[in-house]
């Protein structure tokens, strides 16, 4: 039961941090520190480029999901240009 409480508190903390909206300069700093991932447009090669970045649960505003498969924990997202 104690481990369940720890997991729930950790998830609530992660949700709170990920839900915080950033200004444009702050967001640019965060983009540089994001974990890269492979989008569908990168091709099937495992040695291809990693043009996406990982977001917990779903993509933030201004980003779109760039993979055709679903994961419950994180999404591979690509920044919308324009």
TrEMBL record:
GO annotation terms (biological process): monoatomic ion transmembrane transport
Xref: InterPro entries: Myo_ane_neurotoxin_sf
Localization of this protein: Secreted
UniProt signal peptide: 1-19
A Pfam family matched in the record: Toxin_4
Any GO CC annotation of this UniProt entry: extracellular region
Record's keyword terms, sorted: Disulfide bond, Ion channel, Ion transport, Neurotoxin, Secreted, Signal, Toxin, Transport
Record's keyword annotation contains Phosphoprotein: no
Protein origin, superkingdom: Eukaryota
Protein name as catalogued: Sodium channel neurotoxin
Organism (species): Urticina crassicornis
Taxonomic path: Eukaryota, Metazoa, Cnidaria, Anthozoa, Hexacorallia
């Amino acid at each position: 039961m104690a481990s369940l409480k720890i997991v729930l508190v950790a998830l609530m903390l992660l949700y709170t941090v990920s839900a915080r909206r950033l200004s444009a300069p702050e967001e640019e700093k965060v983009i540089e520190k994001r974990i890269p991932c492979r989008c569908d447009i990168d091709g099937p090669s495992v040695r291809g480029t990693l043009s996406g970045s990982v977001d917990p649960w779903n993509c933030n505003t201004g980003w779109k999901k760039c993979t055709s498969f679903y994961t419950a924990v994180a999404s591979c997202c690509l920044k919308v240009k324009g």
